[in-house]
Design the sequence.
């Protein structure tokens, strides 16, 4: 016996894991992949269909989900299971978190298997539950959503008297501005949440750390002039180029200062878009008056987003001082802090206590390379989060996305057992 749990709890946790129905995980994951839940203003599509499916399936299973819009046509689905012994003043609420939206499939003709067919290549003996589910969103993160839903059903079936509550939060717009989780928090749903499992594809590794992200517009203004007489104007492209080089130097100095984080690696300040002229038609013999740069900044523990923004502004002021009439305007329009959950948090301990039992191996630990909805639960509500879910870490957003269904079933078993361990502490 490797677990630190009391025998009674371990037995219930084991039974909750065993109660997960692999066929149910397969059905839900496949059903979700078949719904194209790309948010696309031009084509007028949203994740509403996938949210409706989640709510319908929960209702059919006897739960009472709440559906509320995070933005017009973009619903969140929230669903509680409270054991009969649950007392809000004494007992914990554990959240299972997921999102219904997926990124675009891009050009569907380059996919080997159609992205929304929900095709399954079954495993040995024709068993779909040990096979592979193909399609956009299969890994990121419809298999994770299916696992969370199946776990909820499994916990209810073995522990109707659970002294705790599970709150399923399946939200909209994770791939965009994360309006879903922000609305979930603003509407008070996170207030009672003591800990959250973020069911994103992380190869079922336990991730206590997530990288932070900053998104910035950098606008460089000069003075338009004839290409034959550049001395009559100010070239914003030169200013922008100097800025890019200075940002690279700043990145190098941060690498030197911080080294490589054990789970998150190095921080990055990456220029992703350069446009000049920023507006209007480009012409070879016209020096434009404005250039644009987008910066994608990824941060690690030890960095402070305000300090980074101040440093970028200092670089800009230096360059302005060297060139009269050159001007920079830097706008940070999204800031998602890095997260670091205490390894001694009870949520971490609960998951660790059942991990080997359920997964058949000691826990592996990892880091989340991007921000997730969990970022805001951690940053705005101080909620300890652990990101763990089925699917290869690098497969999201690629063509030919897939998930191994045995990993989704394993995740569901882990969620169910961890919930018992955490809520019957
Ligand atoms: Zn995701």
Sequence:
């Amino acid at each position: 016996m490797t677990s630190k749990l009391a025998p009674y709890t371990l037995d219930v946790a084991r039974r909750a894991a065993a109660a997960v129905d692999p066929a149910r995980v397969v059905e839900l994951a496949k059903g979700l992949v078949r719904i194209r839940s790309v948010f696309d203003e031009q084509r007028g599509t949203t994740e509403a269909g996938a949210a409706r499916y989640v709510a319908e399936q929960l209702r059919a299973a006897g739960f009472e989900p709440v559906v509320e819009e995070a933005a017009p046509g973009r619903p969140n689905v929230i669903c509680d299971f409270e054991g009969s012994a649950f007392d809000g003043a004494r007992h914990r609420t554990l959240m299972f978190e997921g999102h219904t939206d997926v990124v675009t499939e891009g050009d569907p003709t380059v996919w080997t298997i159609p992205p929304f067919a929900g095709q399954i290549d079954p495993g040995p003996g024709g068993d779909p539950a040990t096979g592979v589910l193909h399609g956009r969103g299969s890994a990121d993160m419809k298999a994770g959503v299916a696992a969370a839903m199946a776990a909820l059903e499994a916990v209810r079936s073995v522990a109707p008297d659970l002294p705790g509550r599970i709150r399923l939060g399946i939200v909209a717009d994770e791939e965009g501005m994360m309006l879903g989780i922000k609305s979930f928090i603003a509407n008070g749903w996170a207030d009672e949440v003591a800990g959250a499992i973020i069911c994103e594809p992380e190869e079922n590794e336990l991730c206590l750390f997530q990288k932070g992200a900053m998104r910035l517009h950098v606008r460089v203004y000069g003075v338009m002039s004839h290409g034959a007489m550049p001395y009559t104007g100010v070239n914003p492209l030169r200013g922008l180029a100097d800025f890019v080089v200075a940002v690279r130097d700043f990145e190098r100095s941060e690498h030197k200062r911080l080294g490589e984080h054990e789970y998150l690696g190095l921080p990055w300040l990456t220029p992703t878009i350069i446009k000049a002229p920023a507006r209007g038609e480009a012409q070879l013999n016209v020096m434009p008056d404005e250039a644009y740069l987008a910066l994608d900044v990824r941060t690690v523990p030890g960095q402070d987003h305000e300090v980074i923004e101040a440093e970028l502004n200092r670089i800009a002021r230096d360059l302005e001082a060297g060139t009269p009439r050159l001007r920079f305007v830097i706008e940070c329009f999204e800031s998602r802090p890095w997260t670091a959950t205490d390894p001694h948090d009870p949520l971490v301990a609960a998951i660790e206590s059942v991990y080997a039992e359920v997964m058949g191996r000691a826990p592996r630990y990892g880091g989340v390379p991007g921000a997730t909805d969990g970022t805001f639960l951690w940053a705005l509500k101080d909620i300890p989060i652990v990101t763990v879910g089925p699917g290869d870490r690098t497969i999201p957003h690629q063509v030919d996305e897939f998930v191994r269904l045995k990993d989704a079933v394993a995740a569901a078993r882990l969620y169910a057992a961890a919930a018992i361990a955490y809520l019957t502490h």
Q: What stands out?
A: The two ends are 18 Å apart (CA to CA). The chain has ten helices and 18 strands. The chain has a mean pLDDT of 96. The first helix runs from residue 7 to 19.
